[in-house]
Records
---
Amino acid sequence: MERLLFIVSSERRELYENLRHVLAHEKGVDIILNRRRVKRRRREEPPAADRRRFARRSRPHEDVEIHARGWTVVRLP
């Protein structure tokens, strides 16, 4: 069964609370606050060697939606 994950900006706490209330009894629906703040790497020059093979937490489309409207929905298997 497919699950839906609502990710709400930490700046939109009222929306988060409203979604939790409205969707409380829906199966397969989770609502969380976005805990990410800023990118951790703040240096201008790239690191000498990046050991990560892929950005497993990178979701550019969802990041844009959270920034633009304060929330997004992700479908999970």
Note: The first strand starts at residue 3 and ends at 8.
---
Amino acid sequence: MPKVLFFFFFSLFISSCSENSKQQILQGEIYGTTWQIKYFPKDEGNSDFIQSIVINELNRIDNLFSHYKDDSITSLLNNNQIAYKETSEEWKNLDQIGWTVHKDSNGSFNHKIKGNYDFNSFAKGYAVDKVSDVLKANNISNFMIEIGGELRFEGHNNSQSWTFAIEDPSLIKTIHKKFYSLSNLSIASSGNYRNPGHILNPLTSKPSQTNILSVTVIDKNSTTLADAWATALYASPKNEWLNLAKQNNLNAYFIYEEDEEIKNISTSSWYELVE
């Protein structure tokens, strides 16, 4: 499935409730997009070390799942240079997650197109989760990670809630609505309004026909799943997306067009996680 979340870098605005001199910010470029980490270290002098291990982990993920790098596991498999059994267990695990979402979404999510694997629709979310593991392994418990728009919040921002805002898809104003996270959360979104036609329905291989303008999914534990499900919900058949979200107990927020009006609706569990 072609990557659908490039717009998301613009669509979620991360807000700091207050400033603190101890907050560290790391940022760079990877996977054809940008990444940023805000965190509060136990040891203020280890920022160079943290940046180094983060970059190493981002590159490690790239070597597994990139379909642009000729020597990644994904490219080697797609080019018949290795067999499936020769891939790593980590690679197989993410592949299985993809097929599980494929099944549970009635085929609206598919990471294998025309015989080739393409993890672009949820690999950034997976990278967020793996970087989160790296930070926690180094005694960092209060942080925000953003990679190409996929987000993970842990702990607090200077003893206050992390906040985010969804972009107004009509582009009439900048922000549609601002939210405060009530716990550790992963957030991903999908939409088509900045690049019409680039999100394909995997069942037809044609641009998705939907009245959704954007969908945002929250998962308490997994940015990988939030990322995959945001894609699946957007690509699902018109008028089926809300039922699909409810059937899978997803925390989802939809902005959609109906009767020439822009409306929004969320699953009942959405406001259990944010306010």
Note: The chain has one domain: 8-272.
